[in-house]
């Protein structure tokens, strides 16, 4: 089974709960392909911020030993809440694929279990204390293991143009203003060089880092005209170094 087939199978098995995340298929595929270049089947992976387990199930189908971790899907009245009976249905899919999704926050996790790879996709930008978050991830990573960090780029082409037009590169001030310390959105996005620096400051050796496109041209959420408008910028971003939408870093734990 190749990464695309594994991911398609994960979406199908986790349906209908995976349907709202279908627009992320292309980005998930890119992340899986990138990770598989550096990790051998049979190695253990902890997927932090796993949600319902789409990425985790796909990795399990490719031969990895996978645990996920997410607290929001287990809580009522969050943006990831699933409704009555959903967790029980998902747990059957997880069990069939020999994975578990741990109902924990990595910042307070007491487990001593360590993995060959710790994955966090679109998680670090939600953290108020990225140093504390990275250190918590590294506690779950064995020496020589890989830290895989994926985050949106603060300086993608659309953000650059927003600033030129006198707008903020940040999104949605009102939720941030209203929620205060309870805000669950993006506290800060980063440039690729900033993610690399944070890894080095955390005593990690960067193996590979890249800025690349992961957003689909037509994601099913936008109107046709908005999709065409955004597609123009996604294509133009290919011509400008560092202007694509996603940063990914693979780094090795040294101690």
Outline the structure in words.
This protein is an alpha/beta fold. The chain is 36% helix and 19% strand. The chain has a 7-stranded mixed sheet, with helices on both faces. α1 (3-13) packs across α2 and α1 crosses α3 (54-61). It is globular, with a radius of gyration of 18 Å.
Break the fold down into its secondary structure elements and pairings.
Blueprint: H1 3-13, H2 25-36, E1 44-48, H3 54-61, E2 65-69, H4 86-96, E3 100-102, E4 115-121, H5 130-139, E5 141-152, H6 157-164, H7 173-179, H8 192-201, E6 204-212, H9 224-237, E7 246-253
Parallel strand pairs: 1-2, 1-4, 2-3, 4-5
Antiparallel strand pairs: 5-7, 6-7
Helix pairs in contact: 1-2, 1-3
What descriptive keywords fit this protein?
Rossmann fold, alpha/beta, single chain, 7 strands, 36% helix, seven-stranded mixed β-sheet
Shape call: globular
Q: Could you say how many structural domains there are in total?
A: 1
Radius of gyration: 18 Å
By secondary-structure content and strand pairing, the structural class works out as alpha/beta
Strand portion, in percent? 15-25%
The total count of helices amounts to 9
Share of helix, binned: 25-40%
Low-confidence stretches: none
Summarize the helix and strand pattern as letters.
HHEHEHEEHEHHHEHE
CATH topological fold name: Rossmann fold
Outline the biggest β-sheet. 7 strands, mixed
């Amino acid at each position: 089974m190749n990464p695309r087939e594994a991911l398609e199978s994960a979406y199908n098995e986790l349906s209908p709960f995976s349907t709202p995340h279908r627009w992320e298929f292309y980005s998930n595929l890119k992340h899986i392909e990138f990770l598989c270049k550096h990790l051998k089947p049979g190695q253990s992976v902890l997927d932090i911020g796993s949600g319902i387990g789409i990425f985790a199930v796909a990795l399990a189908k490719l031969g990895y030993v996978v645990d996920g971790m997410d607290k929001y899907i287990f809580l009522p009245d969050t943006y990831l809440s699933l409704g009555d009976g959903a967790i029980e249905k998902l747990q059957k899919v997880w069990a069939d694929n020999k994975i578990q999704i741990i109902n924990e926050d990595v910042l307070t996790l007491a487990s001593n279990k360590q993995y060959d790879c710790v994955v966090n996709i679109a998680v670090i930008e939600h953290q108020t204390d990225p140093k504390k978050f990275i250190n918590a991830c590294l506690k779950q990573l064995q020496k020589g293991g890989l830290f895989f960090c994926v985050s949106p780029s603060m300086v993608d082409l659309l953000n650059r143009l927003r600033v030129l037009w006198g707008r903020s590169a940040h999104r949605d001030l009102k939720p941030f203003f209203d929620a205060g310390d309870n805000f669950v959105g993006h506290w800060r996005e980063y440039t690729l060089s900033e993610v690399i620096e944070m890894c080095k400051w955390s005593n990690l050796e960067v193996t590979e880092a890249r800025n690349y496109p992961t957003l689909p041209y037509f994601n099913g959420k936008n109107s046709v005209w908005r999709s065409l408008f955004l597609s123009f910028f996604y294509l133009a971003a290919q011509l400008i170094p560092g202007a694509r939408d996603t940063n990914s870093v693979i780094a090795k734990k040294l101690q």
